[in-house]
Design a protein that fits this description.
34% of the residues lie in helices and 11% in strands. It is an alpha/beta fold. The strands form 4 sheets. Strands 1-2-3 form a 3-stranded mixed β-sheet. A 3-stranded mixed β-sheet has the order 4-5-6. Strands 7-8-9 form a 3-stranded mixed β-sheet.
């Protein structure tokens, strides 16, 4: 029998309160990272053309590259994510965070528009430049009301249709075939035509004068973002789950109710879930993208044969697949794609980089949130200590699916490729040595849900939204705005 809402909230508050007292000693072993003043750290992405337009230009490599990190430096980065100086922001000092207006966290620069009859190509270019990883769709250029959105999950769904990897039901076969044929011929496809294949949150708007208590109940219930509206329902900002977690991390020192949670261990807070969907590092990339699409996920853990976490792939990574020269990556391994991601990060930022995408049950909430904010991630994978390597090699050498070598057949020229051709086994990647066995996951939703409940608010069960995304993905039909609003009314 399910407990009542009041019982659940009381239990959650009691569990967190007990965790605060029981962790007072053990949490000292994991130093709390310092926080920096709140500011957007989402960099603009370089212009990149669409998958369907047959453009092959690659960004030039910088003249100088910083040296790679040593193993000791990587380990230190994993244990102590980068952070700035913690300070008190006078704008929020002495205020109850629940009474702060959501409009105080927004900026017009976070809003990027596209019209419903614009092409997918134009929407993709706008998305790559968006600070909030979403483009708002309106009926025409004169409108300031969003009727839909376009994000990386939608781009992933579109690319899967273009390359013939989606599984439409009987009613949508004709639509999928038309989109695939038009894209492969280089034709123009308006956003209006792909609405039935897009999968995402319902469009939820709140007034800029609404307080954060209202916003965190929505975001803590599993809604990934809310649109902030001003007069005449015009959109003046976008607040995502990551934006909200970033705010509470940098400004939490002003809010004792939230700040006292940061030193507590994940184990004692009891947040997260042990139901994890992962993909083997040997699996083709297409399997990972299809799995994320089918399950309504924004990221997925990549594991070796011993279930050790060796990487992470998110829907945002599909930006690396928006040129036709990258099409072969779909049939290559997930581990190969991870090496491509790391290489391109080095090209874009001028240094070799390694992801920080996992924590363990003895990590503090501060340690976990610091990594989420630093990496702009939606979730952290929870790992146990590294499991023993299996007797067989963890992952074969990367290359074509024959797994023999990356060389082309005799007398056949190798196709041009923008990615490294060096074969690297998964066991050689840093994550295989210093991560551990996949045991759970902590998401932004979990953290915001806990913040809300511990503050006496009543967010709904995030499982409802997760189930809705899976249903939407399996049926390949976007719910209408009317049904989205109806579900919101029930939830509120």
């Amino acid at each position: 029998m399910e407990a009542s809402s009041g019982d659940n909230d009381a239990a959650a508050s009691g569990q967190a309160a007990n965790a605060l007292s029981s962790s007072s000693t053990s949490s000292r072993q994991s130093p709390t990272p310092h926080r920096s003043p709140s500011s957007s750290s989402i960099n603009k992405t370089a212009h990149r053309q669409s998958f369907a337009e047959n453009l092959r230009n690659m960004p030039p490599s910088p003249r100088h590259r910083h040296p790679s990190l040593t193993q000791a430096a990587v380990q230190d980065l994993m244990n102590h994510p980068p952070s700035g100086s913690r300070h008190t922001n006078t704008r929020f000092s002495g205020r109850d965070w629940r009474d702060i207006a959501i409009g105080e966290l927004t900026s017009p620069d976070d809003v990027r528009w596209i019209e419903m009859d614009s092409s997918v190509e134009e929407a993709t270019i706008a998305l790559l430049k968006s600070k909030t990883n979403v483009v708002l769709i309106r009926e025409d250029a004169a409108s300031t009301t969003a009727v839909s959105t376009f994000d990386y999950s939608d781009l992933n769904a579109y690319l899967l249709v273009v390359v013939g990897l989606s599984r439409p039901d009987g009613e949508q076969i004709q639509l999928f075939n038309r989109i695939m044929s038009t894209a492969q011929q280089g034709g123009r496809i308006p956003l209006r035509d792909i609405q039935p294949i897009c999968r995402q949150d319902p469009v939820v708007s709140i007034a800029s004068t609404s307080n954060l208590a209202h916003a965190i109940e929505i975001l803590g219930s599993g809604i990934h973002r809310v649109l902030v509206t001003g007069t005449s329902s015009s959109v003046v900002g976008v607040v995502s789950q990551l934006h909200m977690v970033d705010f509470f991390w940098n400004e939490g020192v002003n809010f004792p109710t939230i700040d006292r949670l940061y030193p507590v261990l994940l184990r004692d807070l009891g947040i997260g879930t042990h139901k994890i969907i992962s993909v083997n590092s040997d699996s083709p990339l297409s399997d990972a993208l299809t799995l994320m699409n089918d399950e309504g996920l924004t990221s997925i853990a990549v594991v070796d044969n011993g279930q050790n976490v060796v990487g992470n792939i998110s829907t945002k990574d599909v930006r690396h697949l928006t040129t036709t020269s990258s099409a072969p990556l779909l049939s290559d391994t997930c581990m190969h794609f991870i090496s491509v991601i790391l290489n391109e990060r080095g090209v874009e930022k001028g240094r070799d980089t390694l992801p920080v995408f996992y924590v363990n049950p003895y990590s503090t909430l501060a340690h976990t949130v610091a990594k989420l904010v630093a990496t702009r991630s939606h979730r952290m994978w929870v790992v146990e200590s590294a499991s023993p390597s299996p007797s067989a090699p963890a992952t074969p050498l990367m290359g074509p699916q024959t797994h023999v070598s990356g060389a082309p057949p005799p007398n056949q020229a190798a196709p041009p490729s923008p990615v490294p051709a060096v074969a690297v086994p998964a066991s050689a990647m840093a994550g295989a040595r210093i991560s551990g066995k996949l045991n759970g996951v902590v998401s932004l939703t979990d953290i915001l849900n806990m913040f809300a409940k511990f503050s006496g608010l009543h967010p709904t069960d995030p499982g409802e939204q997760r189930a809705r995304r899976r249903r939407s993905s399996s049926s390949s039909v976007r719910p209408s705005l009317e049904s989205s609003r109806a579900s919101l009314d029930v939830r509120r």
